[in-house]
Design brief:
By secondary structure, this protein is α+β, with helices and mostly antiparallel strands. It has 4 domains: about 5-55 and about 90-160, Rossmann fold, CATH 3.40.50.140; about 165-225 and about 480-605, Topoisomerase I, domain 2 (Orthogonal Bundle); about 230-280 and about 425-440 and about 460-475, no CATH class; about 290-410, Topoisomerase I, domain 4. The chain has 19 helices and 16 strands. The protein has helices spanning about 10-25, 90-100, 115-130, 145-150, 160-190, 210-225, 255-265, 290-300, 305-315, 335-340, 350-360, 385-390, 395-410, 485-495, 505-510, 525-540, 545-560, 565-585, 590-630; strands at about 5-10, 30, 35-40, 45-50, 55-60, 80-85, 105-110, 135-140, 230-240, 240-250, 270-280, 415-425, 430-440, 465-475, 515-520, 520-525. The strands form 4 sheets. Strands 2-3-4-1-7-8 form a 6-stranded mixed beta sheet, sandwiched between helices. A hairpin with a 2-residue loop joins β9 (about 230-240) and β10. The radius of gyration is 31 Å and the shape is flat. The relative contact order is 0.12. It binds one DNA strand through β5, α3, α5, α9 and α15. It catalyses: ATP-independent breakage of single-stranded DNA, followed by passage and rejoining. This is DNA topoisomerase. One of its GO terms (biological process) is DNA repair.
DNA sequence: GCAAGGTC
């Protein structure tokens, strides 16, 4: 035996961290089959840690069932998927097999969640094939900090097959229903020669399709919205303390006009009530992935997919912590003061940081905890120059946001005075609302949505105010806007569609499939996406309703709790979806007919748009050419 | 050519 212990982590960064926490200065870096690994002394023996890259194995159907044209998609419900090696994962298998020969004890240091447990079972499967006498121990830690790691390596657990089986069952169910529904939809339009370009298909998925439904639902709500006229009477009042504007709303034009003449003829009003209430605005809770993505969309003008990609780069280069996390509370073992101290000379916030360090601070705390990763926080203070030079301007936006969000979570509340005055003129009531910022608090370092002063004068009940001006405005109620990405992310979270790491992908998949587009930060269905969502809803609503994913999840939890066997539950879930499949299959002609229409619109329009765009491009190129030539002369 | 979930 060469190694007393071989430690397998879910990713390289964790393998490296474990080595440094356990091995101190004895760590030696090496490569096994091209995979980075770390040798060190621990527990009186030479040990080695290595990271895989998430899952190593995946489910797929046996080859003969992947011939779309000769296999009835319905058959997939009766075929057991097999485990295959993931693309690019073979080097990890080779490395693990090699290490299996060089130790007798393997410590499974994967993330503390069901996916991590599933990966642990993949590792065990691979390694025990190479060496059946291996002993496996599970290290369970909820943060990659020295304290948590040392604690986890004192008290090992047993691998928990129920947890792993929950993940494996989800994989099997998702593959089966995804593949069967995607195939029946795709084949139905292909049979009709339905404008589907080569290599494209019509996909269905238990996450992507409910996401589409949410986007389409909003479009239908807009269309069904009944606009209504209403009337706002705005009155400018003068008091000894200052001028302010109150308003009253009417549904009816004649009543509004009547009110206007009353206001004009009386010409003054009495303060019926006045309120000046201070309220605290709490700083945001510690940052998780979905919140970062939604703030990216709202404040930084970045798409969720882009935000996450940038965050990953910043993480890989040591500027921020691991960006895929649900957690919104700092683990007690994270040294916030050390991180804060790094920022005492940063971007004009130095004075603020020094004040916090001097006065002391208490971090905000959210409710979510994925038990695997801490919230996202900066791990290094870096200048704008440095970040822009290395990763570009967009990366600076993300880094600066992470840093400022972190500082905000340690900051004091902002204090706002909310103001409200009601003025009576005869029997009419006019309301005025205002606000005054009393103390900026965390907004001093978090300049993204700073409340603005819009104060009212300080008046007492019974005071008389004079009418300076009265204006009647006709307005129309407006339909809701198309969904924004930030709203969609919030809805996905509410319904439990996708995970922190995958939500942006489900949005992206729909865009890729031409089911909806993003325009001015709003999500607009294409005729194809709309047809798909509507016709599925009309045939089998269960396939598109957003609750579907949450219901699957709560069933799968029973596997993790050991209340039901995975085989039994997978069988039950597949039977349910088979009945949906049969319902859809009965109506597939009708559905396909509509889908062909949608495809026609999407792909033909794209063609004409593309030729349009290329013509435009050509002419602009011509223009550029001429200006360049001019410059030369 | 399918999904969703890890990770890069």
């Amino acid at each position: 035996m060469i190694y007393g212990y071989v430690i397998v982590a879910e990713k390289n960064s964790v393998a490296r961290a474990i080595a440094s926490f356990l091995g101190g200065t004895s760590v030696k870096r090496l490569q096994i089959e091209g995979v980075p690994a770390y040798e060190f002394n621990w527990n009186n023996s030479r040990s080695l840690s290595i990271g895989v890259s998430g899952h190593i194995l995946n489910f797929d159907f046996p080859k003969e069932y992947n011939k779309w044209n000769s296999i009835d998609p319905r058959q997939l419900f009766f075929i057991k998927p097999i485990l295959v090696t993931r693309e690019g994962a073979y080097k990890y298998i080779k490395a693990l097999r090699q290490l299996a020969q060089k130790t007798s004890t393997v410590i499974l240091a994967l993330d503390a969640d069901v996916e991590g447990e599933a990966i642990a079972f993949e590792v065990m499967r691979i390694m025990s094939q190479a060496n059946p006498s291996l002993e496996f121990k599970r290290a369970w830690f909820s943060a990659i900090t020295r304290t948590d790691i040392l604690e986890a390596f004192k008290n090992f657990r047993k691998p928990n097959e129920n947890l792993a089986n929950k993940a494996f069952s989800r994989m099997i169910v998702d593959l089966t229903i995804g593949a069967s529904f995607t195939r029946i939809l795709t084949l139905s339009v292909e049979k009709r020669n339905g404008f589907l370009p080569k290599g494209k298909f019509l996909s269905y998925g238990p996450c992507q399709t409910p996401v589409l439904y949410l986007v389409v639902k909003r479009e239908l709500e807009r269309e069904n919205f009944k606009k209504k006229k209403y009337y706002v009477l705005r009155v400018k009042f003068e008091s000894p303390e200052g001028v302010f504007t109150g308003h009253a709303t009417f549904d009816d034009a004649s009543k509004a006009n009547e009110a206007l003449s009353v206001v004009k003829s009386i010409g003054k009003g009495i303060v019926a009530s006045s309120e000046y209430v201070t309220v605290n605005i709490q700083p945001p809770v510690p940052l998780n992935t979905v919140y970062l993505e939604s703030r990216g969309s709202l404040f930084l003008n970045l798409r969720p997919k882009e935000t996450l990609a940038i965050a990953e780069t910043l993480y890989a280069n040591g500027y921020i912590s691991y960006p895929r996390t649900e957690t919104t509370r700092y683990p007690p073992t994270l040294n916030l003061k050390n991180i804060l101290s790094m920022f005492s000379e940063w971007e004009n916030t130095g004075w603020y940081v020094k004040k916090l360090l001097l006065k002391g601070f208490k971090p905000t705390e959210g409710r979510e905890d994925d038990k695997a990763h801490p919230p996202i926080y900066p791990t290094k203070a870096a200048s704008k120059n440095e970040i822009v030079r290395k990763f570009g301007e967009k990366a600076w936006r993300v880094y600066e946001y992470v840093a400022r969000h972190f500082l905000a979570t340690l900051s004091e509340d902002a204090i706002i005075e909310k103001q409200k005055i009601i003025v009576n003129i005869d029997k009419l009531q006019f309301q005025a609302e205002g606000r005054k910022v009393v103390y900026l608090g965390f907004y001093q370092v978090y300049p993204y949505s700073v409340p603005q002063d819009d104060p009212l004068p300080y008046l007492l009940k019974g005071e008389e105010v004079r009418v300076l001006e009265a204006k009647l405005e006709e307005r129309t109620t407006q339909p809701p806007q198309y969904l924004s990405e930030a709203e969609l992310l919030a809805l996905m979270k509410k319904y439990g569609i996708g995970t922190d790491a995958t939500m942006q992908e489900h949005i992206h998949t729909n865009i890729e499939r031409k089911y909806f587009i993003v325009k001015n930060k709003r999500l607009i269905p294409t005729p194809l996406g709309r047809t798909l969502a509507v016709s599925l809803y009309e045939t089998v609503p269960e396939l598109v309703l957003p609750e579907i994913r949450g219901r699957m999840e709560s069933k799968l939890v029973k596997i993790a709790n050991g209340e039901v066997s995975p085989e039994e539950l997978v069988q039950e879930m597949l039977e349910e979806f088979l009945s949906y499949y049969d319902k859809l299959a009965q109506n597939i002609d009708k559905v396909a007919e509509k889908l062909v229409e949608g495809l026609k619109k999407v792909y033909q329009e794209e063609d004409s748009e593309a030729s349009h765009a290329s013509a435009k491009k050509k002419s602009s190129m011509k223009r550029r050419k001429t200006t360049r030539q001019r410059k030369k002369i």
